[in-house]
From TrEMBL:
Protein name: MFS transporter
Localization, UniProt: Cell membrane
InterPro entries noted in UniProt: MFS, MFS_dom, MFS_trans_sf, MFS_Transporters
Keyword Cell wall biogenesis/degradation: no
Every Major facilitator superfamily (MFS) profile domain range: 10-398
Keywords: Cell membrane, Membrane, Transmembrane, Transmembrane helix, Transport
Primary location recorded for the protein, binned into one broad class: membrane
């Protein structure tokens, strides 16, 4: 099994392939963050119940989880390139579904298709970035893989919020542009060199399963509460922020919604990259502490009805989100062989997106009986508890065996 690109005609240079793969990966998450400011606009135009917002948000995560369970390790058998080309082609279809959606049902369906495409591609993209990274800078692959999802989520929300604020056809502009970007990403994947050789077992790998190599299980298990806290924090901003801004702060602005959702994942991308040279354990501990502090500041800002405090807390907690995810990827990545890598990263993303989507769905169902403020406070308390548990599990790993 080789970890260097296999020769083929018309293959992109290694550096171009690595950069293009990173940008294509980020574009998937840019598309995932794009609907956040639009959902409130759709609610006003189409008149559906507020709880449907969280269903539309979380439908993406559920589609992603289903694809990860089925196809998460497929690229370990058939190669990275076929999986990425197929997934990005499906993503183009999802973008067109958004463009022509006549109602919320189509939007939810588009979110599911989008989630399936992203789930099929995420572990393959992460493994490909590790394998395409320059030989003398292999750590850069996991750093980029950790920063790209967060950066894409934030930028997608900000750009869409800007389009909502200043244009009358944000849906067409945003998703038409993203469709073109996905076509370019598909071409990049098709022209990049393959990094693994085909091996038997492709059909068997489609059985729903989570694969964590024995050598990585202790590290993987210790990171679960860390992922829970940080991805719940991201879900608070990506899934509930527009409703919080409108109903608690009584502000109705597409740009404000996009900017509020943008801050945590943008801080996450910066922190994940900036801390790439730090030891993974130190990075995770710093990140977990930042999530704990950031969530506390956000809850204080919501109770005090002080939006700047929410922004500050979002930046602090978002930096923690990026640090923990990047550190956790760097901690488990070296513990897997090449043919196990996509399966392991699929397991990481399954934990991440269960934490991202399921709590948001539960919160959406609690808004009606409990009220938005009480629901958000309970959601925040769960983040604090998970962050504290994550810090404890990471601290235990620092002690001598």
């Amino acid at each position: 099994m080789t970890t260097t690109a296999l020769a083929r005609p018309f293959t992109l240079p290694a550096g171009v392939a690595f950069a293009g793969t990173g940008l294509a990966f980020a574009s998937l998450y840019l598309a995932a963050g794009a609907p956040t400011p639009l959902l409130v606009l759709f609610e006003r135009e189409w008149g559906f119940a507020p709880w449907v917002l969280t269903v539309a948000f979380a439908a993406y995560a559920l589609g992603l989880l289903a694809a990860l369970l089925v196809a998460g390790s497929l690229s370990d058998h058939v190669g990275r390139r076929p999986v990425l080309v197929g997934a990005l082609s499906v993503e183009v279809v999802a973008m067109l579904m958004f463009v022509f959606a006549p109602g919320i049902g189509w939007v939810i369906a588009a979110r599911v298709v989008q989630g399936v495409a992203t789930g099929a591609a995420s572990s393959a993209f992460t493994a490909a970035l590790v394998e395409l990274a320059p030989p003398h800078r292999k750590r850069l692959g996991t750093v980029v893989a950790g920063a790209a999802p967060a950066g894409g989520l934030g930028l997608g929300a900000l750009l869409t919020g800007t389009a909502v604020q200043f244009t009358g056809s944000a849906n067409l502009i945003v998703f038409g542009t993203l469709a073109v970007i996905m076509v370019l990403g598909t071409l990049t994947a098709a022209l990049s060199g393959e990094t693994v050789t085909r091996r038997a077992g492709a059909l068997g790998s489609l059985r729903p399963q989570v694969t964590v190599p024995r050598a990585a299980r202790r590290e993987f298990g210790a990171a679960i509460p860390v992922h829970l806290a940080s991805w719940m924090f991201a879900g608070l901003f990506m899934g509930l922020a527009p409703t919080i801004v409108r109903d608690i702060f009584h502000l109705d602005s597409g740009l404000l919604n996009g900017a509020t959702a943008f801050l945590p994942p943008a801080a996450a991308a910066v922190a994940g990259y900036a801390l790439g040279r730090q030891h993974p354990r130190r990075t995770i501990l710093l990140g977990g502490t930042a999530v704990l502090l950031g969530a506390t500041v956000v809850l204080t800002g919501i109770v005090a009805v002080a939006l700047p405090l929410v922004w500050i807390g979002g930046i602090v907690g978002g930096a923690g989100f990026g640090a923990t995810f990047s550190g956790a990827l760097r901690a488990v990545g070296p513990l897997a062989e090449t043919h196990q890598r996509a399966g392991l990263f699929a397991a990481v993303f399954i934990v991440a997106y269960l934490s991202f989507g399921v709590p948001a769905i539960v919160a959406g169902q609690l808004v009606a009986p409990l009220g938005l403020l009480t629901t958000v406070l309970l959601y925040g308390a769960a983040i604090l508890a998970a962050a504290a548990a994550g810090l404890f599990t990471q601290w235990r790993l620092t002690r001598p065996a």
